[in-house]
């Protein structure tokens, strides 16, 4: 029989996981609630962050584990992340699972919730600023525009590239299209969208490192994007926007480019 000393003692309080949205990059785009939870965390499991300032908010005494992925390079598999959540949850820790942008947008949140539910570990989700809204702000534009765009469709680039046929419904979508995980394959995405029936004059914007101090943006037309691509100017994440709501920004950009080229 095991001696009482060898038996593991259950934690005196249950563990708790806060899925905290980190926002797109800059720490001043964190919510106040996110900041306060971060400051009192015992464990922080964090994704790739664009600015170092965010890490300064982690408590010195907290256990902080980087579990991020950037451009396909994964520091931990999803299974390993799930195991860490359960491991610390069972130890009775107050855990912050810090996710880029808004936790609920392409963040594998569903899988992590499922694993916690299956182990009866309680959790909460703190919403935040997604790159979807941060990027359109960098373009000085709006996702919706009265009389122009009353719908927004958010999609990942892989699903367009891997199965263009099943993306054919996009051709009749009348609103603003937002494409994540596609900045490295703009030419192929543009050529598929043109084949699906998008007009070559449709404005397309690319924003890299949106919501950070080193963000970059460019705007073109779908036709030009297919011909020449949109050259990446950073090694950070990028997001694409398509639709008539970008027309004014595009026109202003063209005007500006003309003025510059006319300078003696
Ligand atoms: N939950 C995140 C999205 C995670 S999926 C959010 O709400 O923003 C990862 C993709 O999001 C990247 O490939 C890129 O397309 C986009 N992305 C994330 N952060 C970004 C940023 N700061 N600027 C531009 N795109 C970003």
Automatic annotation (TrEMBL):
GO terms for biological process: methylation; siroheme biosynthetic process. Its EC number is 2.1.1.107. PROSITE patterns: SUMT_1. Keywords: Methyltransferase, Porphyrin biosynthesis, S-adenosyl-L-methionine, Transferase. Residues 17-225 form the Tetrapyrrole methylase domain. It is an enzyme of class 2 (transferase). It comes from the Bacteria. Signal peptide: none annotated. Pathway: Porphyrin-containing compound metabolism; siroheme biosynthesis; precorrin-2 from uroporphyrinogen III: step 1/1. SUPFAM superfamilies: Tetrapyrrole methylase (SSF53790). GO terms for molecular function: uroporphyrin-III C-methyltransferase activity. The keyword S-adenosyl-L-methionine applies. InterPro entries: 4pyrrol_Mease, 4pyrrol_Methylase_sf, 4pyrrole_Mease_sub1, 4pyrrole_Mease_sub2, CobA/CysG_C, Siro_Cobalamin_biosynth, Uropor_MeTrfase_CS. Belongs to the precorrin methyltransferase family. This is uroporphyrinogen-III C-methyltransferase. It comes from Leptospira ryugenii. The lineage of its organism: Bacteria, Pseudomonadati, Spirochaetota, Spirochaetia, Leptospirales. The gene is cysG.
């Amino acid at each position: 029989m095991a001696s009482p000393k060898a038996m593991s003692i259950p934690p005196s309080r249950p563990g708790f996981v806060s899925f905290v949205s980190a926002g797109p990059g800059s720490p001043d785009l964190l919510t106040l609630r996110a900041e306060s939870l971060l400051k009192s965390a015992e464990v922080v499991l964090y994704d790739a962050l664009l600015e170092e300032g965010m890490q300064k908010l982690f408590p010195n005494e907290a256990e902080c584990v980087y579990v991020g992925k950037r451009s396909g390079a994964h520091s931990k598999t999803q299974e390993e992340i799930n195991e860490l959540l359960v491991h610390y949850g069972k130890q009775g820790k107050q855990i912050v699972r810090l996710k880029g942008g808004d936790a609920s947008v392409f963040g594998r949140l569903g899988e992590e919730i499922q694993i916690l539910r299956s182990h009866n570990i309680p959790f909460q989700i703190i919403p935040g600023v997604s790159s979807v809204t941060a990027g359109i702000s960098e373009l000085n534009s709006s996702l919706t525009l009265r009389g122009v765009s009353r719908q927004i469709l958010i999609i990942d680039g892989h699903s367009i590239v891997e199965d263009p046929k099943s993306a054919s419904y996009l051709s009749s979508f009348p609103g603003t299209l937002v494409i994540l995980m596609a900045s490295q394959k703009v030419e192929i995405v543009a050529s598929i969208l043109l084949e699906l029936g998008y007009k070559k004059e449709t404005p397309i914007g690319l924003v890299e490192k949106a919501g950070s101090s080193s963000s970059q943006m460019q705007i073109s037309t779908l036709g030009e994007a297919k011909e020449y691509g949109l050259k990446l100017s950073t090694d950070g994440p990028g997001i694409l926007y398509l639709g008539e709501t970008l027309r004014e920004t595009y026109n202003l950009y063209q005007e500006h480019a003309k003025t510059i080229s006319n300078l003696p």
